[in-house]
Structures are given as structure tokens and as C-alpha cells.
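Study this protein:
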Amino acid sequence: MEKNVKKYDNFQKIENKNKNIFDNYTFLGKISEISQIRHLSLDKLKILADEIRDYIIKVVSKNGGHLASSLGVIDITVALFYVFDIEKDKIIWDVGHQAYAYKILTKRAKEFSSLRKFGGISGFPKISESKYDAFGTGHSSTSISSALGFAVARDLKGTDEKIIAVIGDGAMTNGLAFEGLNNSGNLNKNMLVVLNDNEMFISTRVGALGKYFAKILSGGFVRNLDLTIANLSKKLKISHDIIKTLFNRAKTIFTPGMLFEELGFTYFGPVDGHDIKTLIEILEKIKTMSGPILLHIVTKKGKGYNFAENNPIKFHGISSFDEITGEANKLAGKNKTYTQIFSDTLVKEAKKNDRIIAITAAMCEGTGLLEFAKKFPARYFDVGIAESHAITFAAGVAANGMKPVCAIYSTFLQRGFDQIIHDVCLQNLPVIFAIDRAGIVGEDGSTHQGIFDISFLRIIPNLILMAPKDENELSVMLRTALSINKPCAIRYPRGAGIGVKVNFEAPLLEIGKAEIVYREGDICVITIGNMFNVAKNAIDRLKLENINLKLINLRFIKPLDVELIKKCAGQSKVIITVEENILSGGMGSSIRELLADDTKKIFSIGLPDKFIEHGSQDKIRDIYNLSGEKLYSIFKQIYLNNY
């Protein structure tokens, strides 16, 4: 087997399954070697781009995925394949939302229909999946720093491959991107950064003037700048340095590239990112130039699919949908999501307390803050893709008397670990972290599974860490957190709740107190968060077989209900802990630490010490013994082993 190339044994039938699809395409699925793309005419390249666009829409409509951003970069992807030698040169994609066309063109067209399915290809670049995925990514703003690393390694090895990073304008709001830009300009390595401006973030100047400047600046006049300036200096009898300074200032005045020029990049653009002919012309000239170069292209998210063009936010990350109508496929009788319950509660509390503010890092819709933003625009802050800043910003707000609620996905909260310790908890500031997508998230896979937050948060002094068993408890926990003057974190899962009615006036919780649900039996099951109801259903099945187990809803991972846990340990033969987090440093680990001097048997169920693959939430939970059926079997076996 070729090194770093995953073979999709589970999808051997894909080629036959997709035979009719590829028969409808002129080029897609029939290009056996990447080098063939470089021999297509411009008209054929446009046909290829349209075929890729159609295929991506078809697959994502069935599998879900990141559609709008992927459709926007198809033309630049085709142009890059035409100009560069993909067998040797390295293209590094930022975030990975943009890499679908790249995957299709790097010999994964047939496998693409397995996108985000268990055992199929990942929705993000992944080194272990293909030798063409130079660098894995799922979090934003890593491309420039990693590309610089590739360039430095190339020069130290004495090779000559081209290094290209493709980054979206949204990812440029993250400090890591600017750290990469700063260091790249300083080291002056040969590399190309393609800035995909798909939200008019920097400039709207697309058209003839933009093309003209890009062509002029990438042409001989700039590349032979020293000779040009020397000739002008001689003719005009003006200092060489003065003319060079005037030229550089004029160039940045007429283009939006002053920032990049000051950071040491040669800037070209803005260019229409859907004009394959112009992109090829400019890339051909740029690839022979030295030093760090930034090509600014302007694209349209959702390009070629009206529904995605008109609503790029909805089609950024979407579940399966009807390709003809653009409507999402709805599940009958679906309960409100935990995100919606968080939103409803926060809005209700904000009406009563004008000190409450909401902060998100470019995830307004995803974190459920859209309604808050509409009702309280002066108290809503989207800081862009800048989680570290969001947390320190929240700390500053809290230090000056406000009650900030910082809503961030579990996987992205990892990016602000130091800020949680140094800026919030060390100073004991009342910042509330609403940790969405905690636990298994499913199809987005290893880069997005929220399975580490219990482990990295419970080690931090002053922080109160909670997880609700259902929708009502989430609402109560948020209200409880808002009522105290301490740093608090509430973790809750992706997806729908269990259908519990929310009482927005329910009594607040006593900090650090767990809930005993079943008291009979001398085997005690301790659960946290969404695993409570899964475990309870398994225990209820055992009750029908006259097998009784104690059941505790821990509620608080920190502080622990020490008195209750020790009491149950004294009354039980076995303690079973169940959590949707890695076992290393997790809730079960905290119970073991507490009972370290006890000879009590402790059996912990959770996720292993590994990165969890992509697949449906139900599939992944079943694989790792967190489904109702698996818990029932494990509980029963432990009971039988002790009687």
C-alpha cells in the first residue's frame, strides 16, 4: 500500500454506483492523471469546473457538508492545477471547507460520494487520507504558518517545489494568520498566499481595473523593477531611492495591498476569482517570481448554485437537502436542539438583566445567538475567527462589571486555553462559557469532535464546570451561572434534546450538588451530561429483569459532590462512570482520584486515547460503547460478574 494513502475498502462499489453520474460528464471521473489537466484548453477547463460544481452539489445534497465555500473556489482550484505541478508542488488549504474540488481532482473523484460517511473520505484535508493532502486542517488560519514551515524545510533540503497557501478572508481575522504573514515577510521565502475574498472583506474592486493592475504588477515592469528605476533615475536625474519609494507608494494607493506590502509580501489583485483565463495568466507570471507573494482573488460563495449564492450562510455547513428546491431535509418530530434552548434562555435572561452581553467568534448562527443579536444589538459582539481574543475580551468586559456569555464550540475553545487560565480564571472573573458541540459531533470528524473539554477545563482553579442531562437542566444551569460571580463553563451536545419541557422559572442549582435518581442496588452508575439518559434507559431495561443499579446525575464535574460520591462508594461493590469525553483526565478520572485510597472497583466508560474518526453520531457512539444497547450489555455483564 502506498504510504499515507488510505484505501477505501468499504467503498469498492462506489465506481459502479456512480457510473451513470460520470457518464454524464465529459472530463470528470475520466482524468486518470493529474497532469492531463495541464493539457486542457481554456474552454475545456471551464467545462471541467462546471462538472465539479455539479458533482459537489449532488454529493453534499445527500451527505451534507460545506457547500457554499467549496463552490466558490472551484475556478481557482482548476487554475492552480493548470499552472502548478501538483505531483510535486504543495497546496495547503486553510480550514478545509474549500478543499472539495481539490480532493476530487487528486484522484478521489470516485470516492467523493463517501464524503463524511463512516469509513469514507473526510470533509477536511487529512495527511493520512492522501499523499496530496500536504497538511491536515479543520480549524482556521493555519495555512500561512504551515506553508512557511514547508518553504523553510524545502530550502534546507535543497528542493525546488512551489508552496501555495489558500486562505479565506474570514480566516484572516485570526491572529495566527497575521503571525504567519509577519514571519513570512521577515524570512522572505518563496511562497504564494492566495487570499480568497468571498465576502468583500477587503475590497470590492473587481473588473477591468483590478485585472489591469494585477497583470501589470505581475509583468516585466515590476519583475525588472531595478532596471526600470535605474533608467528613470538617469533620465530624470532623480535619486534611485526616491523613484523606488514613489513607485511603491503609488502601487499600494491604487490597490488594497498596502498592509501586505508593509509585511513584506508582493501583492497582486484584486482579481476575479472566477475568471480562469486571467487567473492562469497571472499565476504563470507569479510562479517564477521570488519572495513571499500574495494574490488577492474575489469570489462568490455558492458560485453556480442559486440557493447557495443567495444564502451563503445557510449553505456554508448544511445537512442533506433537496438539490432542486434547496430545502433541508427535515426530520419528523424533531425536538428543539440544545443550542435553541440556550438561545431561548439567554434572551429571556437578557430582557431582565441589561448587564448580560453575548460574544461569539464568527459563529452567530451556529451558537444560537442570532435572536440575541436581533433583540440586543448593542450587547452582541462577533469578534471574527478569533477565539483567544473573544475570551480575553470577555474577561475585560467582566472586569468592568458586565456578565459576558462567551458561546464557542468545544473544539474551538481549545484555541483559547491560555486565555481561560490567565485572563479569566486566575483573576476569578465571572465569564460564562457556553460550550456547544461538546462530545461527539459526527460527520465533521477528528478536527471537530468536542471530546477534550472536560479534561482540559477541570484542571483550572476557580472554574465551575457543568453539563446538563436534558434541555431543562441546561436552562437552569445557564441561569445559575448568571446568578453567581464566578467563572463558569457549561458543556452541551450537538443536536436535538430528548423532548423535556423547559421551566424557565425552575429553582437554581446548588453549586457542586449531584442528583440521585435511583437509590437501589449496590452497583452505582455515575453519569454526566447527555450520557445520563442513555444510561438511564439501559438501567430501566435491566429493571425489567429485576436488576437494580444506582444512578447519579453528577451535574457538576467541578466542584465534585465529594460527600455523595464517597457515600455511594461505601455502599457499592462497583462504581461505573459514563461520559462522552476522553477517559484521560475526564470525569471518570476525577472519581478515581477522589477514591484513590479506596479499594472500590471503578469501571470507566468513555472515549479512548485517540482522535475519533468521522461518521454519524449514533454510529460513533455505538462503536465506542456509548449507545444504549452497548451500555445495557456492559451494565448487565458487570452485574453478572459480581453476583
User: Anything to note?
Assistant: The first strand starts at residue 90 and ends at 93. The chain has three domains: 11-310, 338-491, 515-641. The chain has a mean pLDDT of 89. The domain at 11-310 is CATH 3.40.50.970 (Rossmann fold).
